[in-house]
Amino acid sequence: MNVKNERTRQVLAAMEQAERQAAKLILQAHGVLAETKTGKRDVVTEYDRKVQQLLMSLLREAVPEAHFFCEEMDERDRLDAEHLFIIDPIDGTMNFVHGFHHSCISVAYAQRGTVCAGAVYNPYVDEMFTALRGCGARLNGRPLSVTTAPLSESVICFGSAPYNPELSDRTFSLARAAFDASLDVRREGSAALDLCTVAAGRAGLYFELRVSLWDYAAGALIAEEAGGRCCTLEGGPLPADGSRTTILAGSPANVEAFLQLAKSL
Fold first, then answer.
1. Which end of the chain is more exposed for a tag (fewer CB within 10 A), N or C?
2. Cα 33 from Cα 48, distance rounded (Å)
3. Are 49 and 74 in contact (CB under 8 A)?
């Protein structure tokens, strides 16, 4: 048995358990009040903070030497730490605030800058998406695989980068092109779940013009371990320094097709 892989598997199990426990806060939420951060579309609630605090406490019990890079944190630890958890406590906060039951908890575990495990949990439908690097991706324990269907026979998910209105024209130009090239498009409000939707073969592609590391760290690993490709909209690797980025994910063939489509616009 590979001791390192077994240790990572144990960490992933702790992540799953922590997410399920923290999800109870989401499911029991009532009277949710939103505060704005950078603008009216960038919101946070007391539940984001409570979920994050509980996750950090539970994960510290599992990995006492752990560091953290979390969305609702003023000072974030270094990305090259020996043991690092990358956390989005509620991805899809706007959905959460307005009662759209499409939000999730996203946790990635990284070692010295490499994401080794990811878990994304949608408590509303009890779907736990997980992946270990080199060991495949799973949904509630069942193996996942991206679709083999071409774009013309697929649904495409996209994010509207709502915190960056200067990107709206480009976003919706791409969305129109995606609509014309596919069966239909979806904008569901959670980058992590969009990546998992690709991993599960439910959508053939996902793109967005501005995401943060906590939005995609776990979901990108899950999509890749399901046989997908994740890159920037220029076709390059996703950044390893925590900077915000464009993102494109899908089967390798669909990603390449969309890269060529995007260049033509």
1. N
2. 11
3. no
Token couple for 198: 């690709």
- Position 64: which residue type? P
Residue 84 parent element (H or E) = strand 84-91
209-247 tens-digit pLDDT: 999 999 999 999 999 999 999 999 999 999 988 999 999
The H or E element spanning position 220 is helix 213-225
- Write down the pTM of the prediction: 0.95
Strands 245-250 and 42-45: unpaired
* Dist CA 265 CA 58 (whole Å): 47
Separation CA 203–CA 186 (nearest Å): 9
Tens digits of residue pLDDT in 15-39: 999 999 999 999 998 877 777 777 7
Domains of the chain: 3-143 (3.30.540.10), 151-263 (3.40.190.80)
User: Which of 223, 187, 10, 28 is CA-nearest to residue 106?
Assistant: 223
Is residue 148 within 8 A of residue 62, CB to CB? The reply is no
| 3-class SS shares of the chain: helix, strand, coil, % to 5 | 40, 30, 35
Q: Alpha-carbon distance 139 to 64, whole Å?
A: 28
In percent, how much of the chain has pLDDT > 90? 84
